[in-house]
Amino acid sequence: RIFLTLVCLGLFSGNNAGHTIVVGDKTFKFHLLPSGMVHENTSCIIGNGVVIHLPSFFEEIDALEKQGISTSGRIFVSDRAHLVMDYHRVVDGLRELERSNSGGKQLGTTKRGIGPTYSSKANRSGLRVCDLYDWERFEELLEKGFESKQKRWGEVSYDLAEDKQKYKAIADRLQPYVVNSTLFLQKALAAGKSVMVEGANALMLDIDFGTYPYVTSSNCSIGGALTGLGLQPRHIGDVIGVVKAYTTRVGEGPFPTECHDAVGEHLGTVGHEFGTTTGRGRRCGWLDLFVVKYSTMINGYSALNLTKLDVLTGLPEIKIGIAYKLNGEEIETMPPSLRQLGACEVVYETMPGWNEDITACKSLEQLPEAARNYVKRIEEVVGVPVKYIGVGPDRNATINL
Predict the structure, then answer these.
(1) Greatest alpha-carbon span in the chain
(2) What is the pairing mode between strands 287-288 and 317-326?
(3) DSSP string for residues in 219-264
(4) How far apart are CA 362 and CA 392, in angstroms?
(5) How many whole angstroms separate alpha carbon 293 and alpha carbon 381?
(6) Distance CA 24, CA 393 (A)
(7) Residues near 58 by Cβ (< 8 Å), separated by ≥ 6?
(8) Helix pair angle (114-122, 86-101), 10° resolution
């Protein structure tokens, strides 16, 4: 029911992260498109805060159409969204290689060009969707952008003439999708339509509040919902924090509750923990409620959607990280320094596990006592009620509290 909204919006990042949605016997993989596309009564918008690789956008649309999802008149793109060009993707790989060759550690980016595109945006040298419809201006910006990359990186493997030709054709196909997303959103709100805002990355990848520099290039906290869409603060209603029953991370970066043992293997295998966009295996570990509390402090969750509780089935005992200690003393909130974070010790609580199959449970009362206690303890530590519990991969395998 949470997805049965009339307008579903994507607000930041690009096709470097995604969502997998299971509907009956069909599996849909979303990278750029909002996952609300699986509901035929929704209109979906890619907001101004997103950086968009248009060839990938149309590949995803074509794939959905082949799976029987009609996209005509249902998906729109902000005229202010910045464009990921192929030279951004090349540069993304070169930056990672440079970090490695200089003796540093790679960030583990997806090499989808997201960071370099946001760099162009911040440098005021980016290309936007609206530029496609002032072709002389678009060509000028494209040429200057490529020239600047050549000055920095030398010979870049990129065919400028081919890209011009490609984007000329893309501009024609894209035109029916282009809207002023802020105006579209305000009209929908004024008409009393329901709106759900969807982000792709979690708080610890936020460029300001996450584990910098092992973060994405945008604000994937609640602030991104405002700046990434032109949404007014007064229109924000419920803020649902989506939290797995355990913790995962893709790529490099600190992960205090990571399990390098049979538990981590269980979580990764049973939970099918592979990146929707990259296919990379996710790192897995115990639920870190210190992180969830920090995320709640920033985002102000009114409720939690606890997903993948069924993955914990079969573990004899379950640990929950409830606090961090630094130099022997418990700390109040997440340290800004990676060096400090690396020196932190996790304070765990251990709870009994369960063996019962919970995938058919439709109410809290049908869950095993140990599973109910696990949910209750999460609510106690975080101070936010759990409103939804995912007990299986299908979207209907959800307990509504």
Answers:
(1) 66
(2) parallel
(3) --SHHHHHHTTT--GGG----EEEEESSEEE-SSS--TTB--SHHH
(4) 11
(5) 8
(6) 10
(7) 170, 173
(8) 100
Count H helices, E strands: the chain? Answer: 11, 19
Token digits of residue 87: 């030279």
Residue with tokens 């909002």: 34
The 10s digit of each residue's pLDDT in 73-128 is 999 999 999 999 999 998 887 877 777 666 666 666 667 888 899 999 999 999 99
**Distance in Å from the first CA to the final CA of the chain:** 12
Give CA–CA dist 241/378, Å, rounded.
13
The two structure tokens encoding residue 320 = 């929950």
Coil, strand or helix: which one is 195? strand
Preceding omega of 335 cis (within 30 degrees of 0): no
Buried b (16+ CB within 10 A) or exposed e, 228-241: bbbbeeeeeeeebb
> Model's pTM, two decimal places?
0.84
DSSP 143-158: HHHHHHHHHHHSS---
In 3-state terms, what secondary structure has residue 105? coil
Kindly tell me the sign of the dihedral angle through the C-alpha atoms of 203, 220, 33, 118. Answer: negative
Could you identify the residue written with the tokens 């994507």? 10
Reading the block at residue 239, the tokens are 């803020």
Rounded to 5 degrees, φ, ψ at 120 are -60, -40
Q: β-pairing, 7-10 with 43-46?
A: parallel
216: closest CA among 36, 35, 18?
Answer: 18
Cα gap 280→23, rounded to integer Å:
23
In tens, the pLDDT along 132-166 reads 999 999 999 999 998 988 888 887 788 899 999 99
Beta strands in 292-344 (DSSP E): 303-307, 317-326, 329-330
Closest CA to 400 of 368, 365, 356: 365
Report, in this order, helix, strand and coil percent for the chain, each rounded to 5: 40, 20, 40
Q: Could you tell me the two tokens for 360? A: 């058919």
Could you give the CA distance from residue 194 to residue 167 in angstroms, rounded to a whole number?
34
301 with 386: CB under 8 angstroms?
no
Q: Which tokens hold the place of 157?
A: 């493997």
Pick from 53, 18, 54: which is nearest to 34 by CA?
Answer: 18
The residues that bridge with 397 in the sheet, in sequence order, are none
